[in-house]
Amino acid sequence: MWDVRGWESLTIHNDPPLVGAKEEFLSWLAEVPQPHQASWERRLKSKLDHPHYSVRLELYLHHYFGSNGWGIDVEPGMPGSPNTPDFKVTRGGDCIIVEAKTVLDAQADEQQTQRLRQLADDLTKKLSKTVIIEPLSDLPSSLPTKKIVPQIEERAATQASGILEFDINDTHQNGSYSLKILILPNYSSTNEVSGVQGMISDVHNITTGSRIRRALEEKAGKYGQIDVPFLIAIYGKGEFPVRPRDEIVALFGDRGLLIPKSAKEQVIEIPRSNGFFNTIRQGKHYHEHISAVLFYRFKWLSDSHIHQIHIYHNPFALRFMNPGFFPNVPQLVPAMKWINGCPE
Is 79 helix (H, G, I), strand (E, B) or coil? Predict the structure, then answer.
């Protein structure tokens, strides 16, 4: 059974598997330094899906790297960029920039308030830039849009190129709230990415592979070219579990049919060149600055739970990441073969 339980479900019953999962997340939270620990705790215990599931991924990554001897810098500054990555991890002379992204199912969109979605849509049209608003905490019954809008507009005015990402932390109605704001350049009214979670309204017509690809695009454009390996970690929260076939489509292109000229030949299926790894623009691979993509799974067993990860290395990357950094982890290496097994 794939993960379908948020924090409230983890705490409302005393079933041993639920108690075990809750205690594990809390033990990982204790490893996170302040001031991040306090904000991560609010997200972990949120009743909203997005903050809860996104911090699960960050907790796992923080624990995984720490347990394997890496030094971890949470939200470090990046020279020449207003954006901050989720982690910079170092070990000896090796360094990796890590970005985490959680992709939620269609039902999670229904949790978010229509006013928040409308705010993102209105700003997208006004600024001619795609604005995505993701809640990072429980939200008050009403949002102070007259305070939020000027903050977004002010930051948007400083955007030179690429994706701009920042948080808004404020108080309203005697309570605090946090929002993550993403501003994408080159808005096109025919190809909108507006609204909460970065999903367009007709989410049921979007394939899982294309949703993963869109999430990767959001993270890939934050810094431009950087001089160290860049890893993006994805968590597809499990009511529409992300399968390897979805990952292959996201990274290496949708499947198309090659129709033969002769009736004696067979129709064959081929990948299109629109995958996250193999898209070419202006004569070169567009995401060659991304070294690899990591996929995280959380899976319930009959009496426990497990965490699983596997990694796809970008065969077109400018900076390859050493597979030896991740012992015993299934990995598709640039030679297009799996080592250490295959993902489930």
Answer: coil
Instruction: Tell me how far apart the alpha carbons of residues 187 and 199 are, in angstroms, rounded to a whole number.
Output: 15
Residue 21 DSSP class? H
Tell me the three state secondary structure of residue 228: coil
pLDDT of 246-277, one tens digit each? Answer: 899 899 987 655 555 555 555 555 666 789 99
Backbone angles phi, psi at 309, to 5 degrees: -135, 155
The residue behind tokens 């995505």 is 132
| Angle, helices 244-252/208-220, rounded to nearest 10 degrees | 50
E-only strand ranges, 53-154 = 71-74, 87-91, 94-103, 130-135
Q: Model confidence over 193-221: pLDDT tens digits?
A: 433 433 332 223 347 787 898 889 889 98
Q: Give the span between the Cα atoms of 241 and 5, in whole angstroms.
A: 13
Measured in residues, the chain has a length of 344
Sheet of strand 164-172: strand arrangement? 130-135, 175-184, 164-172
Q: What is the CA radius of gyration of the chain?
A: 20
Please spell the DSSP secondary structure of 264-302, one letter per residue: TSPPEEEE-S-STTT-EETTEETTTT--EEEEEEEEE-S
How far, in Å, CA of 337 to CA of 178, rounded? 42
Report the SS3 class of residue 260: coil
Distance CA 155, CA 183 (A): 9
Identify the bridge partners of residue 181 per DSSP, sorted by sequence position.
133, 166
* Residue with the two structure tokens 């499990």: 238
Q: Are 223 and 165 in contact (CB under 8 A)?
A: no
